[in-house]
Every structure is written in structure tokens, then in C-alpha cells.
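Dear colleague,

Following up on yesterday's call, I've attached the two folding results inline so they're easy to grep. Please treat them as preliminary; we haven't cross-checked anything against experimental data yet. The first protein's sequence and C-alpha cells come first.
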Amino acid sequence: MATPQRTIAEYTRFCQTLAAQDTDAVKIRVVQNHRNPHHLRAFSVRLPADEAVASARRFAFIDAPKYDRL
């Protein structure tokens, strides 16, 4: 489901919410569209350095494939 474009702050909070739901997860894979491509930069902009590094290690962002419309 596509959602409206989000700010870096909203994206970071979303990722923190995902991480809090499963504290035992080693790697969290997030498949995202090309509309909100914040990736790891969101962590370094919004979080303290040590927390940003820990979050960056925990998440893997995967871009959904682009499909041309006919």
C-alpha cells in the first residue's frame, strides 16, 4: 500500500516502532517504494551517533522493483 510522502523524522519514528516490535530480530528488512527513499540517512540526521549506527546495522532497505506501465 503506497502512503503519502513522509519526512525524515516520521520515517525514523516508523523504523524505531518496527524495531521495538521485535527486539530479538537481528536484521529487519524493509521493502519500500521509490516515493519515500530515505534509507539509512534518516538515522544519521535524526538520532545520536551511537543510536544511528546501531539502527543502521539492524535495518536492510530493499527498493521495490520498478515496473513500466503499459
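Below is the second protein, in the same order (sequence, then structure):
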Amino acid sequence: MVLCVPALYAALAVDLEDVRHRPVLPMLRRARGKAAVTDGLIGTGGDIEREPGVREQL
């Protein structure tokens, strides 16, 4: 029962966020997690070209 309430809250928050395309309920995200949600794909790319396994050119 102790784990059910936070799990249901998280599921509800994620579902509402998916439907409304913006954060609705607080999910306690910080720094990089919050930036990933609010900035979209453009803001999250960052230094992807320097990550291992990413080729310069195909």
C-alpha cells in the first residue's frame, strides 16, 4: 500500500503531462530532468556528437 500511492501519483502525472503536452503535477524533477521536459528535443541534444558510439559522418 505504501508503494501504491506514489506509483499511482506518478502514473497520473505522466499521463496528464502526455495529454496536455506540459507538466501538470509536480514530479520533483531537477536540473537535467526538468530541462529535458521543458526544452524539448532541441535543448536536450547538448554534446551528443561527443558521446561514445556516435559517428562524425556516415
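For the second protein, one point worth flagging: The CA atoms of residues 14 and 25 lie 8 Å apart.

Best wishes,
A.L.
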